[in-house]
Design a protein that fits this description.
With 177 residues, this protein is an all-alpha fold. The protein has one domain: Ferritin (Up-down Bundle), CATH 1.20.1260. α3 runs antiparallel to α4. It starts with a helix and ends in a 20-residue tail after the last helix. It binds MU-OXO-diiron. MU-OXO-diiron (FEO) binds next to α1, α2 and α3.
């Protein structure tokens, strides 16, 4: 069994990951309503990834015979002033998630729960990529603030953001990614 403190912290993180997913749906809808389909598609994809992170955590708890509590989720922010603001929010969110994942690693290590410590390693690596991607996107969008179509062309041209690195990824409840 994983350490009880880790189980509690991971259940809290499941709520954070679902909340991140909802926030990215809200951002995607903002861009979609503004007819910026590439930006919208990027955030719809990110939303699916965050849901996947939550379900990887759910699967781990089930595999370890620990209690899983599917949580209520904090309301996302809707309504943004321009095309830059949602990505500033997204970058802040990713930095916050990084701190949350680091805390989970610390809880596992301090409890001597080596399996949980190993489980959380993939998420630490994933956060490096997600913060870097969001930071690059913020630079791009800030540069093109007055010309959103330039961002759309950029996203169409470059393979940007990609998908989770599935190599060594923990399994996802329900079998999706
Ligand atoms: Fe699942 Fe980007 O945090």
């Amino acid at each position: 069994m994983p350490a009880p403190a880790f189980v509690d912290a991971l259940n809290e993180q499941i709520a954070n990951e679902f909340a991140a997913s909802q926030q990215y749906v809200a951002v995607a809808v903002h861009y979609d309503a503004d007819t910026l389909p590439r930006l919208a598609a990027f955030f719809y994809r990110q939303a699916v990834e965050e849901r996947g992170h939550a379900l990887k955590m759910v699967q781990y708890l089930m595999d370890q015979d620990a209690e899983v509590v599917i949580p209520a989720v904090a309301a996302p922010r809707n309504g943004f002033a321009d095309i830059v603001e949602p990505i500033q929010l997204a970058l802040e969110q990713e930095k916050q998630v990084t701190q949350q994942i680091e805390r989970l690693a610390k809880v596992a290590r301090e409890a001597g729960d080596y399996q949980s410590e190993q489980f959380i390693q993939w998420f630490l690596k994933e956060q490096v990529e997600e913060v870097a991607t969001m930071s690059d996107l913020l630079t791009t969008v800030t540069r093109a603030k007055e010309n959103p179509l330039w961002v759309e062309e950029f996203l169409a041209r470059e393979s940007f953001g990609g998908e989770d690195d599935e190599a060594g990824a923990p399994p996802t409840a329900g079998g999706d990614r």
